[in-house]
Design brief:
Elements: H1 2-21, H2 23-44, H3 57-87, H4 91-95, H5 102-130, H6 142-163, H7 170-183, H8 197-201, H9 206-219, H10 223-254
Helix pairs in contact: 1-5, 2-3, 2-5, 3-5, 3-6, 3-9, 5-6, 5-10, 6-9, 6-10, 9-10
């Protein structure tokens, strides 16, 4: 078990060494997007929308931006970047000539996006805190939700990588799957049981559950209730998506 983890960590170390070479460029879009969403929607649209569930629109939207960062960073990492490592630069082929096996590669990929999801969610929360948009005491719990969202959405990226015929087809996945997950997450407007099919549809969205958790932590509201409701759902979705990602990507790696 320890040896498996050590080999998985080697995969993480490799990705970190590549990522840090262009750290600012690689992280800029994940950090800048929430800031500009805050300016455009929070200060812009928020001037016209005065009350959303008892809060200003800016305060309502802020926690969801932190959760959304985990979705974006993990999906793009496990789609475009993983596809490139698989088909172009020979990273996985080289790893398989070492003691690192197929399982360690897959778990290493998911561990990497778990760490990225946790880190990006925390960084965005700190940025929002500087603007005075969150409550600080439970910010330590935010990376837990970010890590789970990262693994679940990273798994979606891995599944997509096993299905697309070329790298351009990821645009279809983003347009018709990732974008709806992002915009129907409870980040931009509240989602309640009375909204019918939308409410039931988002129950299978990892970002919805992650958003509700981050909202609870950063609003300091119904933390126990929402943790008991949304953590189990998010864990089930994470393991379910992870299972299908593992099965599909294992077959891809066996063909190398």
């Amino acid at each position: 078990m320890l040896e498996t983890f050590r080999l998985c960590w080697k995969v993480v170390e490799h990705h970190w060494m590549v990522y840090r070479k262009n750290l600012f460029a690689n992280s800029s879009i994940t950090i800048s997007d929430p800031i500009f969403f805050t300016l455009a929607f929070g200060f812009g649209l928020g001037a016209y929308v005065q009350d959303v569930d008892g809060r200003s629109y800016l305060l309502f939207m802020a926690p969801g931006l932190a959760a959304g960062a985990a979705l974006l960073t993990s999906f793009f990492e496990c789609s475009y970047n993983t596809y490139f490592r698989l088909n172009f630069d020979g990273t996985f082929k080289a790893m398989l000539t070492s003691p690192i096996g197929i399982s360690e590669i897959i778990f290493g990929e998911l561990l990497w996006v778990a760490l990225k999801g946790a880190f990006m969610t925390l960084i965005i929360s700190f940025v929002l805190g500087i603007f005075g948009l969150i409550q600080w005491p439970f910010i330590w719990a935010v990376p837990l939700a970010g890590a789970l969202v990262g693994v679940a959405c990273g798994a979606i990226g891995l599944i997509a990588t096993t299905r697309v015929k070329n790298i351009d087809q990821f645009q279809v996945v983003y347009s018709f799957l990732i974008a709806p997950i992002y915009f129907l997450s409870g980040m931009f407007f509240p989602i309640h049981a009375g909204q019918g099919w939308i409410f039931w549809l988002v129950q299978i969205s990892p970002l919805y559950h992650g958003t509700r958790l981050v909202q609870s932590f950063l609003w300091q509201e119904d933390i126990l209730k929402n943790s008991l409701m949304h953590f189990p759902a998010l864990i089930v979705l994470t393991f379910g998506l992870g299972f299908f990602a593992y099965k599909g990507f294992k077959k891809k790696l066996q063909l190398i």
